[in-house]
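Internal QA ticket QA-208
Title: Verify multi-chain structure generation after dependency bump
Assignee: T.L.

Test input:
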Amino acid sequence: MREVVCEKEDIHPGKMRSATLGKIPIVVCRTKDGEFYAFANRCLHQGAPLSEGILCGDTKRTDIHGNYEYIKDGEILRCPWHALEYDIKNDGVMLAEPDKKLRSFQVAIEDDQVVVYK
Amino acid sequence: MPKRRKQRRIIDTDIHERVTYSDLLPYLDNPWRRYIEDNHWVQEKHMPYTQPTVAGVDRADAVTPDGGAAGTDLGFMQKQLLDAEGHEYGILSGALDPSPSSMHGWYEMATALASAYNDWQIENWLEKDSRLYGSVHIAAQEPQQAVREIERVGSHPKMVQILLPIDTRSWGDPYYHPIYEAAERHNLSIGMHHNEPPTHFGGWPRYFIEWHTMLPTAHMIQVSNMVFNGVFDKFPGLHLIMIEGGFTHVPHLMKKMDQQYKELRHEIPWVKRMPSRIIQEHVRFTTQPVEELSQKEFMQFVDQMGSEDMICFATDYPHWDYDSPLEALPKLDEALEEKIYSENARAAYPKLPQPAGSVK
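Actual output:
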């Protein structure tokens, strides 16, 4: 299955939008370095629409209490309800439970259009 | 969004409508109005965290279409929650905080705010949607004034409970019993919902994740306090609904209280039955914020509670830890789901209408 979502420039770096792939609700994300990723638009927890959340970063794991280092800015898709986090550059893996991940879809840029494949 | 569970009759026991000070001004007399309008009074809040979520305490997708704060627009709430999820009824639990921890000693202003809020709630929410039922807000730290307010609005047909905050006081103390007497008089239940701060010992923990994890401890303190101070022996018709503490702590609490009762009963001779029995008969617990539970795990909690009548469903809309009626709970036996999603709440709130053809 192939679906043209929008023009490439319709999604600015660091932004996302909802779409459908056939009957499947999807969210198409664009990282700050311009790459595109597409996932099922449904949180694995209670099904919230992820496209209503935000693209943000993570805090780097540390052994030093009180030490904060902000990483992966714009690469973490965070749920609009319970704030569960998914690493969009790492196959949609849930940060808290890495054995869980979002259903992902292949994205291609064809003639400046964002095209998603199943 | 795919729906795993068929839509069913839902009585949602925790929906937060939100007021702004400007909304309240028409319902306030001077000098109270002046404190807000001319002196720019704002309520001091205590929570030391910025909630590390997407939109503070709210669902990010609950911002109103005109950009207003979540919970401020009846029409949007009807569309996003009541219509979408098929609610039969929703109990409004508000977002005003006239509690001791926020108002300190200024109970005169707290009383005025609570009255204004009740009038605002009735006019703008309860009388505009037949599905919505309300909570009487009171400045409970001053029982005489609180009882006056209950007498003033408690007989409104759509007021179903009196709201008490879970913060710095334990409400079983006989000093507060006039509130329960008034509740019985008006066939109102008591709803307890956490305010700020709900931690009795150690004050605020360092992180929001600690505070949110330990919410049930504040609920346990209140239930223990209400039971051991003999509230339900003194007011045998009283219903207590513990809102937004979940229910998985309850089996431990019941077991612990029973054991203590066997050993220390002589200290509280006004309590005449096993605490677990009192809790089973008088206290109800909302599901939200529910942990992810398998059907087997869920049923283990129910079995240990010894009753299928104690758990009531709640969404906590529009807050960030909202629980979806279709997704939050595991699939359960049909009859149990009917109880949790609607009938347990209908029994806990005697003023709610009964299903057509039923005899109460």
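Spot checks passed. The longest strand of chain A covers residues 70-78.
Status: verified.
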